[in-house]
Amino acid sequence: PYSVNTSVLPQALFPKLEFFNFNNNSLYDVLRSFYGLSFTRVRQNIDATVGTDEVNRCLKLETVKPLLRIDATSCCLHNDKETVFEIYEAVFLTDILSYFVEKYNR
What we know:
By secondary structure, the protein is mainly beta.
């Protein structure tokens, strides 16, 4: 594994989301195709960090390594109003990954 990702989404906006198999489906593809989600913006804060015991266990790290943590808030249009639909945290190994961002609204 190269990352640990956590997304928190409001159940009221995405009923039955728990029935999708995210081993086979992208969260964002499901949000767009099944729920008709239209992203408006994402705000990200990126920090260098080290992992917690749980993150290190998930990443199978035996020694402390530098990690990249991204905290994000994602917004969409819901009932003609911009609404937060996701609070997201990801922690990435830095020795096997580069991070490139290109965000746009289709």
